[in-house]
Amino acid sequence: MMHRPAGIPAQELTDVDLVRELRHLHRTRHDAFIAGSEDAFETHTARMLELEREYLRRFPDAASPDPRRTRA
Questions:
Q1: What separation in angstroms does the CA of 67 have from each of 5, 9, 56, 63, 64?
Q2: CA 37, CA 50: separation in Å to the nearest integer?
Q3: E strand residue ranges, 1-72
Q4: What is the DSSP-derived secondary structure letter of residue 5?
Q5: CA–CA dist 36, 9 (Å, integer)
Q6: Which of 13, 39, 57, 71 has its CB surrounded by the most CB atoms within 10 Å?
């Protein structure tokens, strides 16, 4: 088995796996910020951004704000 310290590249994840990974990262974000080392937080941030960019690439309409959530 190949060791991947940064995880499976986002573009190689299935849609289901990508969403699962994003949910996990969003759930653990606060703990990484409060209790993690600087390196752990930087790694968490880099992975989160990688997955979020891939999600928006696959689902560009997901970036459209819900008009019910804006103050316009």
A1: 39, 33, 18, 12, 9
A2: 20
A3: none
A4: T
A5: 23
A6: 13
Cα gap 26→23, rounded to integer Å: 5
Pairwise CA distance, residues 53 & 22, whole Å: 11
pLDDT digits (tens, 9 = 90+) for 23-46: 999 999 999 999 999 999 999 999
| Type of residue found at 26 | H
Spatial distance between the Cα atoms of 59 and 19, rounded to a whole number of angstroms:
11
Instruction: Give per-residue burial for 14-41: e unless 16+ CB within 10 Å, then b.
Output: eeeebeebbeebeeeeeebeeebeeeeb
Tell me the C-alpha to C-alpha distance, in Å, between residue 30 and each of 5, 12, 25, 57. Answer: 21, 26, 9, 25
Residue 70's pLDDT is what?
76
Q: Taking a C-beta distance cutoff of 8 angstroms, is the pair 44, 21 a contact?
A: no
